[in-house]
Amino acid sequence: AGWNTPSNQAVTVNDGQTTTARATxxxxxxxxxxxVTLSPQGAIDAGAQWRRLGTTTWYASGATEGSIPVGQHTIxxxxxxxxxxxxNQxxxxNDGQTTTATATxxxxxxxxxxxVTLSPQGAIDAGAQWRRLGTTTWYASGATESGVPVGQHAVEFKTVPGWNTPSNQxxxxNESQTTTATxxxxxxxxxxxVTIDPLEARTAGAMWRVDGNGWLASGATVSELxxxxxxxxxxxxxxxxxxxxxxxxxLPDQTASTVGTYIQNIVxxxxxxxxxxxxxxxxxxxxxxxxxxxxxxADADGLPESFVLALIQWVSCHAxxxxxxxxxxxxxxxxxxxxxxxxxxxxLTGYEDGLAVLMLIxxxxxxxxxxxxxxxxxxxTGQYTVVTCDAAGSCLxxxxxxxxxxxxxxxxxxxxxxxxxxxxxxxxxxYTNILNNGxxxxxxxxxxxxxxxxxxxxxxxxxxxxxDTVVNAVDVQLVINGALGLNTNGANTDINRxxxxNAVDVQLVINxxxxx
Length: 516
Prior knowledge:
Layout: E1 3-4, E2 26-27, E3 31-39, H1 41-45, E4 50-52, E5 64-69, E6 71-77, E7 83-84, E8 89-93, E9 98-104, E10 106-107, E11 111-119, H2 121-125, E12 130-132, E13 144-149, E14 151-157, E15 163-164, E16 169-173, E17 178-184, E18 186-187, E19 189-197, H3 199-203, E20 208-210, E21 221-226, E22 228-234, E23 240-241, E24 246-250, E25 255-261, E26 263-264, H4 277-290, H5 305-318, H6 323-340, H7 352-361, H8 363-375, E27 388-389, E28 395-396, H9 427-436, H10 441-448, H11 472-483, H12 502-513
């Protein structure tokens, strides 16, 4: 089998001789086919091929080579840049059959780097970043990603609020090289319009600005503002309280609007607490009536406000220049100033002096006033101070300043627990003694500031019939001085500032002398 039999031959045999003959078999040619499949597709695309060792023709993946002699043959694979060729393979060819084989190329890892620069700086500050599509790590502007496989890659950009994201980009990575790319974000913008009220403030020069830029008039619109929060502030003008700084949020392609309302400052001129205390009393009475306060002891400390006001007036009239008188005047004027700067200060007109005095009396009284006002829909936001004194008689405030809530070590000289004369008897005790003695507000004021008296002593008497704590002789002398032109005080004035005219003071002295 596998060989061709020689043709028959004729031979001649001779007597006594040996005849020889020769015959040659010839091999029968047997062959088959070979088909080789290569992978992956990337290697095939790059030029991968195969052939039998010792032959010259290269075949593509899936091609079949025919008429291959039966037997064993070696397959070799073409070298392709970027790919590792498979090892040679040995195959067996059978007669009349197609032998198949497969071979896999492996990619040689070739890498480069990628650097992407982003802009503008505002987008970078807002969190702009980049990465290759299909990867997870975000990179900052200017960062370089290394070890990127050669070939084409898509670059995507991180979404940042307030900015339009650049479109994806395709870049080509080359072996051992750094590919650069750029991505430009576009800021989303909107507009802002600010209105200023009232007209009088606009006329006086009220203006506004955004983010510290130029001042603008009411109704002006600023465009191309980046999306997000912006600061609006208002220009100071004399005689007006400036609106608070505002934070306005700008949305894409929209116009935000806001209003700034100026409040015209109210000027409350202080009264003279010696000669004009009657006006203070009238304002307090009006306040009590309008806000539903009953009785004469709003802070419920046991000491009626009418008696406290008499004490404040006495200090203002007869202790001018003392630490307590200065502190009282400073606290009153500081409280009045705070009231004038309140947003709803105009609603306090007609009560301003009374409230300023009430709030210097004690922290308890101040809290009471604030609570009553809140109940009437008025919330005060300013700072208010109470008169306080230490054991040595030094009193605060010493100027138009705010004094925080009094420490318990300090005395509130106008409160029920206060003791302005330091005799150990509180105002409430001396007030009670005065009542028990049949006295009134002036008697209380005199006793409260006299360390030698606690109100339990007999009231008045021949030496001081009008009980103004100034003896009769002095009262008469003051009137005589006025009659002689030694001062400008006449019969209808009150030179000793006891709330009684000079004429009344003299008449009281005369009545006492006559036994009336």
